[in-house]
Amino acid sequence: MRSIRKSFLMAIIALSMVFALGITAIAIKRMRNQRPRTDQGQATLTGERRVSVRQTVCQGEDGEYREATEVFEGTSTSADPRLSGPLTITVNSFINRSPDQQEGIVDGRIEIRNALGGKVKARFNAVSDDAQTLEGLLVGRINAPGNDADENDNDGGGERLVANFFGSFNAMDDERDFRVSLGQEPPTDSARNSAVIQRGKCQGGQ
């Protein structure tokens, strides 16, 4: 009987050691995967309007305004599989439509279901200085499959995505197309728009 108990106890100890070693190996792998790295990113996001959630036209002190929330669906095209895949864009625009201004603010969020089975979740803020051209900043996260962390969750793992972008969106009327480019040369004399993808943090510190 003692021999059976001893064998049983040894088996439990052995299984515990195997389990502990497995957890340690996973932790080491995760730490290795979180070593800092920076990559250049490029992508073109193209969407067609599917839903006009809300649209309001009103008179302001300096002209007529259009305020709208619209949902676009399309594709993110990139050589980087992390940035390539089906795309959903929610756009909020508030534009002065008077002929001498035609400018305003466009913001919203994007979600890309990328080619690796993960998701890109990001928010953007942009300026429209002629009710058609967009220039702004996009900030978000690239999550691995099974990780559905929010774009603002800095502890959610994944990789950070920060990108200057330019694009086109006619916010004067019901617009059917939305197109922006990340990390590519703009069609103007302005400085190059850059996009970088980062992961991990420096361990320790001084």
Structure write-up:
A hairpin with a 5-residue loop joins strand 5 and strand 6. An eight-stranded antiparallel beta barrel has the order 2-3-4-5-6-7-8-9. The N and C termini lie far apart (58 Å). 16% of the residues lie in helices and 50% in strands. The chain has two domains: 1-33; 39-199, AOC barrel-like, CATH 2.40.350. The chain is α+β, with helices and mostly antiparallel strands and 206 residues long.
Keywords:
single chain, 206 residues, alpha+beta, AOC barrel-like, 2 domains, 8-stranded antiparallel barrel, 1 helix, 10 strands, 16% helix, 50% strand
CATH architecture identity of the largest domain = Beta Barrel
Helical content, roughly? 10-25%
Q: Could you please say which CATH topology of the largest domain applies here?
A: AOC barrel-like
Order of helices and strands: HEEEEEEEEEE
Number of helices: 1
Which helices and strands, and how do they pair?
Layout (H helix, E strand, L loop, with lengths): L1 H32 L3 E4 L2 E18 L2 E15 L7 E12 L6 E11 L5 E10 L4 E11 L15 E10 L8 E6 L12 E5 L7
Antiparallel strand pairs: 1-10, 2-3, 2-9, 3-4, 4-5, 5-6, 6-7, 7-8, 8-9, 8-10
